[in-house]
Amino acid sequence: REYVYIFEMFKNPLAYTVLLGLVFPWTLWLGAGAVMPLVNRERRREPGFLFSWGWLIILLLLLSLSPVKNKRYLVPLLPAAGLLVAHTWLLLQDKMAAARECRWARPLGRIHWGVLMLASPLAGLFVVLQSRLVAAGVLSQVLVVGIPPLLAMIAAAALLGIAVAGWKMQNKARVHGAAILTALWMLIAATF
Predict the structure, then answer these.
(1) Cβ pair 56, 26 in contact under 8 A
(2) For the packed helices 105-135 and 27-39, what is the interaxial angle rounded to 10 degrees?
């Protein structure tokens, strides 16, 4: 059975795009950082940015071309993804501090916070309704155990509050605080 799984992954060279889900809610910023050296000359000259970009892209290409695929091979990509996202947020912060308009940042930020505001109540609702989803045959088993419904809804309300605060903070050009709130949101959501 394991061999069938490996064969299926080999047939799909994009198997490691699961990395995008692993870095949620930073996915949009990772994508922006990945294309930035292709469209921004300043980023091509910055050694730290190029190092993290090269680490991610080259390793991702090598792993994608390899005939053997395994989920644990994604682990060396995660620090590179984190560095690339951090560089992207720093660029955004620098541009906002210099009062320069960053055309791509505002829509990306709106999508980022909009997704977090939508995911917040849905996470709590999923925990509350998952036993009914199992009974209806939508799920084969309860996926999140040990969290009482009231606690799930309190956590969902906290997540929503963090997302709204982050939205406001980023709109006020407080990118550093918005990044910290995203990390806090991610920390709480990871408990589900």
Answers:
(1) no
(2) 150
- As to burial, measured by CB atoms within 10 angstroms (0-12 exposed, 13-18 middle, 19+ buried), residue 96 is middle
Q: In sequence order, what DSSP letters do the residues of 5-59 get, joined into one string?
A: HHHHHHH-TTGGGGHHHHTTTSHHHHHHHHHHHHH-HHHHH-HHHHHHHHHHHHH
Round the CA-based radius of gyration of the chain to a whole number and report it.
19
Cα–Cα distance between 68 and 129 in angstroms, integer? 38
Does the N-terminal peptide bond of residue 25 adopt cis geometry, omega within 30 degrees of 0? yes
For the chain, give the percent of residues with pLDDT over 70.
87
pLDDT digits (tens, 9 = 90+) for 76-94: 888 888 888 888 888 777 7
User: What's 103's DSSP letter?
Assistant: T
